[in-house]
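sorry for the late reply, my laptop died twice this morning and i had to redo everyting from scratch. anyway the thing you sent over, i finally got around to it. pasting the sequence first so we're on the same page, its 97 residues, then the predicted structure underneath. double check i copied it right bc i was rushing
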Amino acid sequence: MRRVGERGFVLATERPLVTQALWRLLLICVVAAAGETIAYQLEWLDQVQWLGVLFGAGAYILTLDQGRPGPRGGRRGEIKYWRGHRVDDDEPPRRLN
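ok and here's the structure:
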């Protein structure tokens, strides 16, 4: 709990113990370990590490776009304001200075 105001108490928001980034890291590690296991099963003993790195890099690249805005670089529906005026990204600036 944290104190807010003169005599009021407000419950602090609880943060999740495991965030999305940790789940992503766990997934990458599991996929890399699976790649190394496949290399052991195929008896490619001199390429075990590289197959694990390759699988892990593939999982990293496949999970890269999670939680990002669309291809136009939008703000997920948020409207951008500057000094109280709405700013449109497609509109050129009115002045150069």
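The mean pLDDT is 77.
thats about all i looked at so far, will dig more tmrw
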